[in-house]
Write a structure and sequence with these properties.
Number of strands: 15
Oligomer: single chain
Bound molecules: adenosine monophosphate, zinc ion
Shape: elongated
Strand order of the largest sheet: 5-4-3-10-11
Strand content: 15-25%
CATH architecture of the largest domain: 3-Layer(aba) Sandwich
Order of helices and strands: EEEHEHHEHEEEEHEHEEHHEHHHHHHEE
Number of domains: 3
Radius of gyration: 25 Å
């Protein structure tokens, strides 16, 4: 598997720390508002990465945080606290805002067929971990106290600018000039680990600490949550390109200062989705959410396909015309697949299937070339493979693409769970060598025009035309 690594600025062969296993951390949403479809593009890219790794046989442990405290509008220590901004906007408490938008986020990712990471943790639930890390950083001389806050001294880290490729002369990057900076900081780029003063009077989320009642900075939460659930060594860390500096740069400084060695080997960043005016925004112009797209008649899966048609490292401009084209292409694709389903003849030809599976895998292993992976899908449809083989491949590819390629709209959830139940019973019967019962189940389904197809990876079902 080849991946572009922001750290080395090169496409590299991916080698995990532990054979066959991948530890992956993905920065989660700041739950002060709905996610815009730009944010969701980043989560789609991460989902494809996780599913590709699983497709090629890795066991992936993926963690995501939910930012409900500490994230300033500047991404640095200045500006307004995003959560407080949300609470003021809606006359609600920070906790209510966090709950509401966490649920909204989960709904969005579900609609986009993004797998929920195995571990999703709220920033506000891990204060003890941050305190422990900050204490160690103070002991080791990486952090210092100034005017009641604890800061990280970036000059203590020789490779501080390695990830971003920035120059120390760019020290003011990320620091907004219109906002008062804490003059007590040793260096302008030093960043906050724990605040007891700044904007404190409005801060509802506050905790006791050895340095007084306060709240953590944004960056320490990802270092803390990653350390808690994935330990001292991380294989892959992801986010959008805006996270490279200062967020991920600061995460590296803290985590490596704390653990005392290199922390994460591969840094993968998704490029932005922009609207026609330029930068995607939650406050200016049309606020592009997934629900807005739905209200305009675009199924969330169309948006997923729209994203997969381009490479995750290229900027993408959102246009409704492009969504219309994608919608048409998707409808055509689904109707082709439907006609294959209705005449899914023959036995699966595994040798032929393997060729296409390799082509598909090669595309994804080449730094997640999803557009080429989709081309492989079209190649399969055009090929002279028999129906059963095509169906098998479509199902196999869709474990990564997650485009509902085999979804039968007519199959209601009750019928679906009945079929899945029957398949399970049949598997059990086969395991017990009760082939009579297994056949009986198969025939019972066949009478209802549901045909089962056994594949190496499990059993598929096909709704036959009555
Ligand atoms: P936030 O909720 O602001 O913390 O951002 C959530 C994720 O969306 C982060 O990984 C960001 O890097 C990413 N992101 C922010 N803006 C965009 C955009 N316009 N396009 C793609 N990803 C974005
Ligand atoms: Zn993060």
């Amino acid at each position: 598997m080849k991946l572009y690594n922001t750290l080395s600025k090169q496409v590299e062969e991916f080698v995990p720390n532990e054979k066959g296993k991948v530890k992956m951390y993905t920065c989660g949403p700041t739950v002060y508002h709905y996610a815009h479809i730009g944010n969701l593009r980043t989560y789609i890219f991460e989902d494809i990465l996780e599913k590709t790794l699983e497709y090629i046989g890795y066991d992936v442990k993926r963690v995501m945080n939910i930012t409900d405290v500490g994230h300033m509008t500047s991404d640095s220590d200045s500006g307004e606290d995003k959560m407080l901004k949300g609470a003021l906007r809606e006359h609600k408490t920070v906790y209510e805002i966090a709950d509401f938008y966490t649920k909204a986020f989960m709904e969005d990712i579900q609609k986009l067929n993004i797998k929920v990471p195995s571990i999703v943790e709220k920033a506000s639930d891990h204060i003890d971990v941050y305190i422990k890390m900050i204490e160690t950083l103070l002991e080791k001389g990486y952090a210092y106290e100034a005017s009641g806050n604890i800061y990280f001294d970036v000059t203590k880290v020789p490779n501080y600018y390695e990830l971003s490729g920035k120059n120390p002369d760019d020290l003011m990057v990320g620091v907004r000039e219109d906002v008062e900076e804490d003059k007590a900081k040793r260096n302008p780029a030093d960043f906050g680990l724990w605040f007891t003063t700044s904007k404190f009077e409005n801060q509802v989320m506050r905790w006791d600490s050895p340095w007084g009642v306060g709240y953590p900075g944004w960056h320490i939460e990802c270092s803390g949550i990653s350390y808690q659930y994935l330990g001292e060594y991380l294989d892959i860390h992801c986010g959008g390109v805006d996270n490279i500096f200062p967020h991920h740069t600061n995460e590296i400084a803290q985590s490596e200062g704390f653990v005392g060695h290199k922390w994460c080997n591969y840094w993968c960043h998704g490029e932005h989705l922009n609207d026609s005016s330029g930068k995607m925004s939650k406050s200016k112009g049309e606020f592009l959410t997934l629900s807005l797209l739905e209200s305009k008649g675009y199924d969330p899966i169309i948006y997923r396909l729209f994203c997969l048609n381009s490479h995750y490292r290229s900027q993408l401009v959102f246009r409704y015309e492009a969504m219309d084209d994608t919608k048409k292409a998707y409808q055509k694709l689904i109707s082709k697949i439907k006609s294959i389903r209705e005449s899914a003849d023959g036995e699966i030809e595994y040798d032929r299937a393997k060729e296409y599976q390799e082509q598909f895998r090669n595309a994804l292993e080449n730094d997640l070339n999803t557009a080429n992976a989709i081309t492989t899908l079209y190649d399969v449809l055009k090929s002279d493979c028999n129906g059963a083989t095509k169906l098998y491949l479509i199902q196999s590819f869709d474990t990564v693409l997650s485009l509902n390629l085999l979804q039968e709209e007519e199959v209601d959830t009750e019928l679906k769970s009945y079929i899945e139940n029957m398949i399970e019973k049949r598997n059990e019967a086969k395991k017990n060598k009760d082939y009579a019962l297994a056949d009986q189940i198969r025939n019972e389904l066949l009478e209802k025009n549901i045909e089962l197809k056994d594949t190496r990876e499990g059993t598929l079902y096909v709704m036959k035309q009555s």
